[in-house]
Amino acid sequence: MNYQLIPAEDQPDLYRQLFALYCRDLQKDDPTIAEYDPAVLADENLCADTDHPYLIFVEDQPAGLAVFMDESAPVGEEDCHTYLGEIFVLPAFRNRGIAGSIAETFFDAQDYDSGLCYIVGSPAEAFWKKLFNAHAYHEIKSIRTDLEKTVEI
Fold first, then answer.
1. pTM of the entire structure?
2. How far apart are alpha carbons 92 and 68 in whole angstroms?
3. Three-state SS at 137
4. In terms of DSSP bridges, do strands 82-89 and 114-117 run parallel, antiparallel, or are they unpaired?
5. Which of 10, 78, 102, 142 has a Cα-to-Cα distance from 110 of 20 to 30 A?
């Protein structure tokens, strides 16, 4: 699947819209997400020096978002230099290998420890476990599973 990653700062309004959809999607697995304002969270991604948000485009159509966080992000893992903090693909573009391709490219490019964030018990957990089993990413030291805990793998 061919896709493009475009810096979210190039189209901040679109990023905010996609982030709101992402938050709505997350609420299915973590109702506490409703306590946060998606616009504020999106703006925090756009403004933070440690967050690197991108829009995912497929054939010139917005297909989702991805956020990479560097080591000074509050992830609770000193050994990790970069985290794949968020990845969201719109339902119309799912099951085409987009998220897997982005994750594989990200992890394959790391020459140091990296990490990943997801909500335990969510559909994303099965996706990540399948990806890890297929590729044996040894450099992933921890997985951020919610706002308070990190699971060592």
1. 0.77
2. 23
3. coil
4. parallel
5. 10
